[in-house]
Design brief:
By secondary structure, this protein is α+β, with helices and mostly antiparallel strands. Strand 1 (49-62) and strand 2 form a beta hairpin. It has a domain at 42-131 and 207-349: Trypsin-like serine proteases (Thrombin, subunit H). The protein is built from five helices and 14 strands. The chain has a six-stranded antiparallel β-barrel. The protein has a five-stranded antiparallel sheet with strand order 11-10-12-13-14.
Length: 351
């Protein structure tokens, strides 16, 4: 009877253990979640930001395939800097401050995710406007090219006259000869573009597309900048923020992703101190990424959720922390945007 007695006595113990499991699991989850609220040191803040390179150009596409490229729109939405294909003459390069983020606010779940302020959002709205009236825009562009061709032809005729009445021994003759070659080459390119544009403009499948490629920039062991491609995760092109992901879904050694909590967020008030973690100066003209590095800067909150740190030190996309080291939000144009706008699991950036 003794073995049976031990078996019977063991049942309440097993039942107690089973009943305690949910409590134990809840306690573990609570501890893990609580750890995500621990304040960050300035070193950890700096390791949460990254430098991203963006290279953009516009394309005229026919049936989804690029047929022409251009650099920008003018005020009338006419393409500027037209080219028959995308090359260095139509691309725009800029540098962006990004932050490593976890997908979920309670567990490490970065997987190479980077958050940036979407500086393409305004341009994407202009693309929508241009596609809505593309036939009229292309007609105006063709007219502009025709005027340009006439001017270039007139210039070419004047230069030809000069070349006829002067010879190689005259001062400036060689300079004018080189200038003549450039004018004629530009005229020939413009004629070719106008012909190509006229052949395409009648097709209703024609559309404008903004093409942007992103790359994470990190210094290598030799002090040079290495590039790792990033995919765009946010499907909505006009979203004020954009989620990127490195192609191999990894972070560099030492990087630290922040948790974008939806609840229990700090709300700094006017006069409270804040700390900005950023890639300072990355939006400045002739910025050299090889000479930059993450840094933190102190500031204070002004009215209506704004801070007083200048844009050169706090570019869009920089992280804003309280003086106690808790994440308060993301900087956009001097405003502190709370992480709650991204939704649980970053759902607002994934739809």
């Amino acid at each position: 009877m003794k073995p049976m007695k031990r078996l019977i006595d063991g049942k309440p113990v097993s039942r107690l253990i089973l009943q305690s499991l949910p409590i134990a699991l809840a306690a573990i989850v609570f501890v893990i979640y609580g750890a995500t609220f621990l304040p960050a040191s300035t070193e950890r803040m700096e390791r949460s930001v990254a430098l991203v390179e963006g290279i953009s150009h516009y394309e005229l596409r026919l049936g989804g395939k690029p047929v022409m490229a251009f650099k920008s729109f003018n005020d009338s939405l006419q393409p500027q800097g037209l080219a028959l294909s995308a090359d260095s003459t139509v691309t725009t390069r800029r540098y962006l401050c990004a932050s490593w983020v976890n997908k979920y606010p309670f567990i490490a779940s970065c997987g190479g995710l980077l958050l940036i302020a979407n500086d393409d959002s305004v341009a994407e709205r202009r693309v929508l406007q241009a596609n809505g009236r593309l036939p009229y825009i292309l007609k105006a562009t063709a007219d502009r090219l025709a005027v340009k061709i006439r001017l270039l032809e007139r210039q070419s005729e004047e230069i030809d006259y000069y070349m006829k009445v002067h010879n190689v021994n005259d001062d400036g003759y060689n300079v004018m000869a080189e200038y003549s070659a450039r004018v004629k080459a530009q005229r020939d390119r413009t004629v070719k573009m106008l012909s190509h544009l006229n052949a395409l403009s009648a097709d209703k499948r024609l559309e404008v597309k903004l093409v942007t490629e992103y790359a994470l920039l990190t210094p290598d062991t030799a002090g040079r900048m290495s590039r790792k491609g990033c995919n765009i995760v946010t499907p909505r092109h006009t979203s004020p923020f954009r989620l990127l992901q490195t192609v191999d879904r990894s972070m560099p050694d030492g990087a630290r992703a922040v948790y974008l909590h939806q609840w229990l967020l700090p709300s700094p008030e006017a006069g409270d101190s804040v700390v900005i973690a950023a890639e300072p100066g990355c939006t400045a003209y002739k910025y050299d990424p090889a000479e930059g590095s993450p840094a933190t800067f102190g500031g204070a909150v002004e009215s209506a959720g704004r801070h007083d740190v200048p844009p050169l030190l706090a570019p869009d996309g920089a992280l804003v922390f309280t003086s106690g080291g808790r994440l308060a939000g993301i900087n956009v144009d001097g405003r502190i945007v709370k992480p709650s706008v991204f939704g649980f699991g970053l759902k607002e950036l994934l739809k």
